[in-house]
Amino acid sequence: MPEPVPTASGVAAPVVGLDVERVRADFPILSRRIGDWPLAYLDSANTSQKPKRVVEAIARHYLEHNANVARAMHTLGGEATSAFEGAREKVARFVGAASAAEVVFTKNASEALNLAAHTLGGRLSPGDEIVISVMEHHSNIVPWQLLAQRTGAILRWFDITPDGRLDLERAAADGLINERTRIVSIAWVSNVLGTVNPVAEVAGLAHRVGAHVVVDGSQGVPQLPTDVAALGADLMAFTGHKMLGPTGIGVLWGRYDLLETLPPFLGGGEMIEVVRLTGSTFAKPPARFEAGTPPIAQAVGLGAAIDYLERLGMENVAAHEQRITRYALERLGQVDGVSVLGPTEAVDRGGAVSFTLSTADGTEVHPHDVMQFLDARGVAVRGGHHCARPLHERLGITASSRASGYLYTTEAEIDALAEGLDYVRSFFGGRS
Predict the structure, then answer these.
(1) Residues 327, 211 share a domain
(2) The pLDDT of residue 430 is above 70
(3) Active-site pick, 146, 387, 419, 429
């Protein structure tokens, strides 16, 4: 990968274009073989692989700078705190936040969405309405179900069109977002259909009736240039492990004027101002929402992942994602028995491509069988309902297979997928 050019802001200027083969050299795991087959890793919507620079940054932190943050005043404590808060600043820059104080570290996106639901919940009364969509990940369904049960609020949802997009027309006709709506929470990019949702348009509708907008950015932030202001979000959750970072680190971004009105989520050290036996006062955001020892090394790793993505340039990442997704849709369209879920053109579409596979007599090959047979040929995909069971029920199926590329995915790996599916279909009865 070409060396970045330093700029006056201190942020490395992105390279021009994306040399995928040079990028792949930064990911040793991609050179693995599964038996006699080269690994074709097509499960990045589940978790991305990590470049050497991220792994080395985490190791270097533990080997040279390990200490707790915001507590120890010695040299190591200062270095750890500087690295941790430096990662917060990188995240803020990466998503277009107004300041680092708008970035709350969590252990994953699920915790970030639970934090949002729990803290916004104090504003709800019986009969108030929460709006989600049928395409949501369970992490953006269950917290709102629990909140509705606690408060007496009503949970409603967007349906989808036959091509897998939010049905805004039906939502308008049904008055889905109305004067009773208090919270709207939707995915930016579907982890099953790949649909890129019109978040800004939905946010405009929500804000007109005074509702807060929560965005699940878990699939969008890794793939697309992100500007939280342009999205119209009030709160946005995403996770590090899908964007080249380590597991164990997530983010809740929030408008500071909203965060400072929200109550704590968890109690413990560092989220307090003063503690007495008769009561406590609480720190300002983001510390208010970060009780106890935070994921320090994980934040350092996420910061290194952001450095890497910024060197590549998110416009380049998004362009490659679109190219490889377009190629995947074309190749899957050439495989007999494959039916793609969601948009079949790479327009307003992310990198997750879910599908079913049927034999010549119309019998569906179970996605778990598809996954296992492909794995035997070195092709790693996911099979199941991808933590989106309500969406699969809406589509009239129990499960699907999902292939998902990322910035290191090649056309040869997509070819391996297509050839593997031909093999699977043949094995299970592909010829009439």
Answers:
(1) no
(2) no
(3) 387
